Amino acid sequence: MAHHCCINQRVKKGLWSPEEDEKLIKYISANGYGSWNSVPRLAGLQRCGKSCRLRWVNYLRPDLKRGSFSPQEEALVIELHRNLGNKWSRIAKHLPGRTDNEVKNFWNTRIKKKLRSQDHAIPHALATFSVTEYLSGSEQGVSPHVLNRNFNLNRKSQQDQLHQPPPIRMLQSLDLSDHRILEQSSCSPSWVHFPPLIPPLPNSSSKTWSPGHDHQTHDQLGPNQQDQNFSMRASTPQSLVINPRISEPDSENAILAPEMPELYEIIIGGINVGSERN
DNA sequence: AAGCCTACCAACCGCAGCCTC
DNA sequence: AGAGGCTGCGGTTGGTAGGCT
């Protein structure tokens, strides 16, 4: 059955052309998105609204992080999946710049296989030292240096993988059930944080983003992605009204991490012990 | 060089849930 | 209360690139 938004429309399917992307970007840049169903008509696209939304959310959004998952993201995905199951959107909320689709693909293509190949599904690092454990340990004042000793970290190689700025905030959009789950696993959300991939919104009430902040690491982008990034910069105004329906992380409630100097090294070190990245 | 295999990922599909009337 | 519209989510598919034989 055709989706209701596609009924009575001659809609195109399949991959998006650069021209279509450009149209969608231009339209949303100028108007924001209120009703996805009206977007294709108003933007001059022969797509259904659902397809437009998906394209925007998964690919064209300016705050997306492209490129492969970092080891710390991988660790977080594994940990969150352990707690949340296949709740990709909820997992993705904890990974700024990543979409549910991206997380899902990442899980299905990489982690699942990796875990399967390593008896009992848990990478060495997480089997012996999970994010949760570290986090709860940190709260109890366990020195990262002690942990570093245990994992025999190679700081140089870790630094090479760290293309992230210092940690700032994470789990800022946790809902209550997420909090409960993390509490059950003795993990305090206030300690789970991650380098920001997009500039934090100025405040929670203004639903705007500024494409002027270009945080993408261009050398990680494929040619098509670079083109699209270029398009974004070329055509996007300084601010854009985002549909209020889309829930933004609540900056008011965002928990700023006080300091987490070596979390990355610890997680990365652990992961590198148990598995190699490709 | 050609064919096959595998990994990856963009996009689609169908359903559930929310909202409005 | 319930019907219809819409959005978001999770599962799945299909195309493509790269490696191997």
TrEMBL record:
<keyword id="KW-0805">Transcription regulation</keyword>
<dbReference type="InterPro" id="IPR051953">
    <property type="entry name" value="Plant_SW-associated_TFs"/>
</dbReference>
<dbReference type="GO" id="GO:0005634">
    <property type="term" value="C:nucleus"/>
</dbReference>
<dbReference type="InterPro" id="IPR001005">
    <property type="entry name" value="SANT/Myb"/>
</dbReference>
<feature type="domain" description="HTH myb-type">
    <location>
        <begin position="61"/>
        <end position="115"/>
    </location>
</feature>
<dbReference type="InterPro" id="IPR009057">
    <property type="entry name" value="Homeodomain-like_sf"/>
</dbReference>
<feature type="domain" description="Myb-like">
    <location>
        <begin position="61"/>
        <end position="111"/>
    </location>
</feature>
<keyword id="KW-0677">Repeat</keyword>
<dbReference type="InterPro" id="IPR017930">
    <property type="entry name" value="Myb_dom"/>
</dbReference>
<dbReference type="GO" id="GO:0003677">
    <property type="term" value="F:DNA binding"/>
</dbReference>
<feature type="region of interest" description="Disordered">
    <location>
        <begin position="203"/>
        <end position="230"/>
    </location>
</feature>
<keyword id="KW-0804">Transcription</keyword>
<keyword id="KW-0539">Nucleus</keyword>
<keyword id="KW-0238">DNA-binding</keyword>
<feature type="domain" description="Myb-like">
    <location>
        <begin position="8"/>
        <end position="60"/>
    </location>
</feature>
<dbReference type="Pfam" id="PF00249">
    <property type="entry name" value="Myb_DNA-binding"/>
</dbReference>
<protein>
    <submittedName>
        <fullName>Uncharacterized protein</fullName>
    </submittedName>
</protein>
<feature type="domain" description="HTH myb-type">
    <location>
        <begin position="8"/>
        <end position="60"/>
    </location>
</feature>
